[in-house]
Amino acid sequence: MGREETTLNTWANALVRTLQVRGRDVDALLLRAGLDGVMLKDPNGRVPVSGMVRLWRLAVEETSDPCLGLKAAAFVQPATFHSLGLAMLASQNLEDALQRSARFSRIVSSAADIVIERTPWGLKEVMRWRAGVPVVEEAIDLMMASTVKMGALLLGLDPQAAQPLELRLCRSATPAMRAEFEAYFRCPIWFDAEENSLLVPQEWVDRPLPMANPQLARQNDLVVMEYLSRFDGARLAEKVRAELISRLPAGEPPRAAVAAALHLSEKTLQRRLKDEDTSYQQVLDEVRRDLAQQYLRESAVSVCEVTFRLGFSDQSSFTRAFRRWTGLTPGEFRSQPLEA
Question: Is the pLDDT of residue 254 over 60?
Fold first, then answer.
C-alpha cells in the first residue's frame, strides 16, 4: 500500500521565511498550495510533499528565481533537521555526521533517499528522488546548499571559505543560473548530470568535530528513532487528518477522493477508521473544529475567510457547525479572553 510522502515543517519553513523576507504574500501562496500556515508552526509536524511541490512551483513562479533553493539555505540551521541536527553536531567527524544524516534522512523528507559513497578524493553525498514523487529541483538545490552550510558549521569553518570538490545536478541551467551556482558553491559544477551529488574533500571527512560528544549523539539518535517510529507507524486517522488539512481550502473533500489519495477503497477506509474507534466524519469535524479555533484567535483572519479555509459552502453553515462543536458562535468565541 502506498502512502503520502511528507516533509518536516521546519524544513518547509525555510522556504516560507525566504518568501517572507522578499515581501511576498505567504498566506496567499500557502492557501493556493493547499498548506496551512498555522499547522506549519508545529516544529514536530509534517506537511504532504504534494503540497510542498505546489508551494515550490508557486514560489519560483512568484519570484521568477530558479535559484530560490540557494536563498532558502540562509534559513537552515541545526534545529531545522529536528533532533538529527543535534546528533550531527555531536558526531565524531564529518563522515559520522553525513552517514547519520543519510541513515535518518526521512525525518527531513520521505520523498528522497540520501546515500553516502566513498571515493578516492572524499565522500560523495548522493540524493535520489523516490519513484512516483514529482521532482523539485529547487528542493534538491536547497539540500546541497544546506550540506555545505552544515559541513562548515560542524567543522568550525568560515562558510564563505568552505569549498566542496564538485557538485553534479540533473537539472539544466541558463548561463545566469550557472554563474550564481558557481558563486555560491565555488567549485566545479556539472549540470545535466546523471545524478544529484556533492563531493566533499577527504580533509573535511577526517577532521574531528569540535563539538563531538558520542553520548549526546546517541541520545539524539534515540530521539530521532522515537520520532520516526511514530511517523512511520502513524494511525490512519492522522493520515486522513493531514490529507483533509491540505484539501479543505478547495471545499469539503469527498471521502472517495481522500481514500484514493491514501490508496484505499472507501470501504477499507471506513473499516480501518472504525478499527481506530473513529470515522471519516468525526475526523473531518475534529480537523475543522481545531483549525477554526486557531484561525479565530488570529484577529487578522475574518470569519468569512475562516469559512473558506475550512471548506464550508457558506458562513451560516460554518456558524451552525461551530455552535454544535463549542456551544458558541464564531463571534462569541472570538470575543472571549484567550484564557477561556
Answer: yes
